[in-house]
Amino acid sequence: MLIVLSPAKNLDYETPPCSKLHTQPELLEQSQRLIDELVKLAPQDVSALMGISDKLGSLNYDRFQAWQRPFAPENAKQAVLAFNGDVYSGLAAERFSATDFRYAQKHLRILSGLYGLLRPMDLMQAYRLEMGTRFANAEGKDLYAFWGEQITEALNKQLKALKSTSVVNLASNEYFKAVKPKLLNAELITPVFKDLKGDQYKVISFYAKKARGLMAAWIIQNKLERPADLKKFKAEGYAYNKTLSSDKQLVFTRDSATQ
């Protein structure tokens, strides 16, 4: 099976990587095309485009200006070790064994506004460019138009290499919108994580993000091959809820008292 994750806004380029394994992003030429347009923006334009503070706007302006190829361990870091958000606290890739990293390299893909689709050990330079950003470019009004069918084609290529027909969607709606499900040569399975609030189970963003990372790590460390085995996932109080689930959407719930 192939796992799909979202990236994170927060980055960690200070902690030395725990693995020397690294590769180059497969869609780097397309990233360069975006950078060529992004470097034309002034710091205040970056702030306005992303709806962020002047300080963050200046930081990301500087990142766009400093972005350069070729990528090497001296000026870039593996994506799965550079991202530092809620999903990645659950994933905890810094604890992976060499075997885990090799499995992840084949079975995990990270969606990205700038890089399109990243393998875990692909080197990347620091950036912020969310997939939902309405950045007009040569291909259209936003990043969805820019990437078009390219991300889906890259996923299909890896599915073929794996001889797999299953995609586990652990990405957010904003990012998975860049994938064309009708063109995906796979069964799409979407795990959903809900916590008990009052008398109802609801998705709570912070907890759900971490749970997506926990499930991705569990798949990787157990080298899962069968989608049916996803129902066995149990971590931090979450367990499969058959009543709330369907064939395409697997719901995992926990009571607030177990947190």
Low-confidence stretches are none
Which structural class do you get from the secondary structure elements? alpha/beta
Total tally of structural domains: 1
What is the global morphology?
globular
Break the fold down into its secondary structure elements and pairings:
Layout: E1 2-5, H1 28-38, H2 43-50, H3 54-66, E2 77-78, H4 79-82, H5 86-91, H6 98-107, E3 108-112, E4 116-118, E5 123-124, H7 143-147, H8 150-162, E6 166-170, H9 173-176, E7 187-197, E8 200-202, H10 205-222, E9 239-240, E10 249-254
Parallel strand pairs: 1-3, 1-6, 6-7, 7-10
Antiparallel strand pairs: 2-5, 3-4, 7-8, 9-10
Helix pairs in contact: 2-3
Features:
alpha/beta; eight-stranded mixed β-sheet; 10 helices; 10 strands
Molecular structure report:
By secondary structure, the protein is of the alpha/beta class. The chain has one domain (2-258). Helices cover 36% and strands 17% of the residues. It has ten helices and ten strands. It has helices spanning 28-38, 43-50, 54-66, 79-82, 86-91, 98-107, 143-147, 150-162, 173-176, 205-222; strands at residues 2-5, 77-78, 108-112, 116-118, 123-124, 166-170, 187-197, 200-202, 239-240, 249-254. Strands 1, 3, 4, 6, 7, 8, 9 and 10 form an eight-stranded mixed sheet that branches. The protein has a two-stranded antiparallel sheet with strand order 2-5. Strand 7 (187-197) and strand 8 (200-202) form a beta hairpin. Helix 2 (43-50) packs across helix 3. The longest helix is centred in the C-terminal third of the chain and has 18 residues, at 205-222. The chain is globular. The protein starts with a strand and ends in a 5-residue tail after the last strand.
